TrEMBL record:
Keywords, alphabetical: Cell cycle, Cell division, Cyclin
Name listed for the protein in its UniProt record: Cyclin N-terminal domain-containing protein
The Cyclin-like domain, residue ranges: 214-298, 311-394
Domain of life of the organism encoding this protein: Eukaryota
GO molecular function, one term: cyclin-dependent protein serine/threonine kinase regulator activity
Region (Disordered): 1-24, 91-136
UniProt biased composition (Polar residues): 93-105
Amino acid sequence: MQYAKAPDAENGPNVRDAKGHLQPGKASLAAQAVARRALGDIGNLVGGFHQKVNVGKEGAGDADAKSQGLAQARPGVLTRRAAAQLAAIGTNGEPTNVPAGTTDSWGAKPRNSLRPRDTTAAGIPKPTAPSRASAGRSMSQMLQDRSAAVSKSALGVPAGDVDQAAASDPLTVPEYASDIFSYYRSVESQFMVAADYMSRQSDINDRMRAILIDWLVDVHLKFKLMPETLYLTINLIDRFLEAKQVTRKHLQLVGVTAMLIASKYEEIWAPEVRDFVYISDRAYTREQILQMEKIMLNTLRFNLTVPTAHQFLARYLKLAGSTRDTELARCATYLIELALPNYPSLRWSGSVMAGAALSVASQALGRADALPALCSSAQIDRAAARECASHLGSLMAGAPSASLTAVFKKYSSDKYGAVARLPAPVLGA
């Protein structure tokens, strides 16, 4: 079973010539994008209006807006800038009382059914805002303290401190990082497939699955997609094959459709449907891919947010203080990708796979085994991780002579540090 070879597309697949071939991507994509106008002054203005305003009423507030120098785009419409200026010149936190029957500052009479309340009535104490000091800890602080108490890093430092070290990057969400990965650990079993699911397929087998994934690794590399896209693609394929009977002539269609869905989910500039038609040597039409997309999403019930070994590896590297150790990260990633086309590797969860890969990679580079510390800090099953590490070591040793070489060739290049050329370690030494 052989699939069309992915063409060399140095800078992505999204630009074609008149004949439909993929051409290197051009900077004209960015030039064609319509430049959006910058927003004006905008902020959290909830509760910030200290004067009565009528939004959208024709002729409301023209004279008052001009007298106070407020910017107004058109009569009766409160713009963002006008709202910001209005909030800035408020009445020191006190509401403006407008007597009934008179016009407010925007020139509109209040409705009879919406008269302002008299907050100065005798016997009604004015509510006071609770002080920030008496409010206690915020929910974010409580979650962070709880996560720090439960999860300890490989270096004996609370995980909360590890996350706070990267607090300057808002994408790391240090307040919730530990809870996010605790949630991933709790739900990863829901998105794992049975290790023997292929035995229930009548027309395909694990060898065909391996050929498909080996080809998709090449396609992923040529399209220059994010690493997360590849892992999500394989997860979607396995979950779909577990749920549906698929013929061998439609197996590649399932593969390209899974990568299309994963690209839409993970990428900023995802390949188009026509790119997958071309990359599969026009074995399937655009309509067939779109139809399969509907079938897959409905079968999987649109559950696309799934934990993968790649996400757990990133977390373990942070806990071990090795986020800047590029060689270790590349070697561990190489081992995980070696396991993607390997059907027996489905026995282990992503969290165990990531810990085992980090253990083998650290020993291959002549460093101390990272697994003992990870088993205590990340709560990894030591026996399962040791068994998985032995399996990954065997895959690493046999990769140079394997018949499917997409992953080995990828990580033999200088771009990935040629980590595939490292000798397999003698585990436990």
